[in-house]
Amino acid sequence: MKGTKKIMTKVMAMAAALLFAAVLFAGCGGSGEGTGSETESASGGQTDETTDGAAGKVYKIGIVQLAENGAFTEMREGFLNRLGEIGYTDDMLDVDYKNAQGDIGTLNTICQDMAKSDKDIVVTVATPAAQAYVSQESDIPLIFISVSDPVNAGIMHALDTPDRNATGSSNLVPVANIFEMAAELTPDAKNFGILYNTGEANAVSTVENAKAYLDANGYTYREATVTNSSEVQQAAEMLASGSDAIYVPIDSMVQSAMPQVAQIAKDAGVPVYGSSPVMVLDGALATVSTNDTQVGAASADIADKYFKGTPIADIPAVTIRDFISVINKTTADGIGVEIPAIYADATIVE
Hints:
Shape: globular
Oligomer: single chain
Number of domains: 2
Number of strands: 13
CATH class of the largest domain: Alpha Beta
CATH architecture of the largest domain: 3-Layer(aba) Sandwich
Structural class: alpha/beta
Distance between the termini: 109 Å
CATH topology of the largest domain: Rossmann fold
CATH superfamily of the largest domain: Response regulator
Helix content: 40-55%
Strand content: 15-25%
Largest sheet: 6 strands, parallel
Mean pLDDT: 86
């Protein structure tokens, strides 16, 4: 009987041990499933963190501008808004925005600091800022917004093969379309004044294209160049006094002074043709151009590709070729220009 009790005791002990082991195994199995779920979530976050932020990644973005103006603001906001549309929520973005307020020395200092920072990317708006940053030869990639001629500006050697750790959006300036519009709106304009800053490569290259078009189509022109903002008023007055119309290319310095330029020209009864919608909002008569918001958004799409693992060298620059016609009705009325019916679909601002 005692032997039987001993056997029963051992059997019960073994059963208890087996039961404990089963419970422990089940617990480990549940833990294993939890671990697998967490790994999948983390992996999913790595792949799709731009839509749900599962990985908790915060992207550090430096944004640099030479100056503040409406066009640059639209481009910058277009970039950030597009990131939001893709799925980058505010808590996923650490944005450090710097504005040089038109001072080249300050711009260079800002770019030096950005190049040595812990940013994931640096975003520049317009050509001068992109040139200043690329010259730092930083390991932090550059994604530029609105560089009309990246190759001529020295930011890359070919649009399809970024080779200076930089890529972005190029806003082609359709000079032929602009002067064709001028021929429709102001057909008597035969002598154009061209106002631009010789220190901006994009402005210089656009002016070369403009002059080639004017030469080929029997127009005459004269130039007024500036090197700092204090010279813009005098240059505009000179052109307004002896030109049938004034053309302003994409130019950070002149664009920032567009309200002043437009008023001088309006007082003289001279139309101004700009190169961006914001120039028209600031008083220029008209333009054919890319949409500034779209240009910024295109660079955001590039940033998204980089964040998802594509090397900068494998992301070609994007040239925006979708153009819109924009006309300022208040300016048109002020200088006696009638808007032809062919521009019924144009964007009219007042």
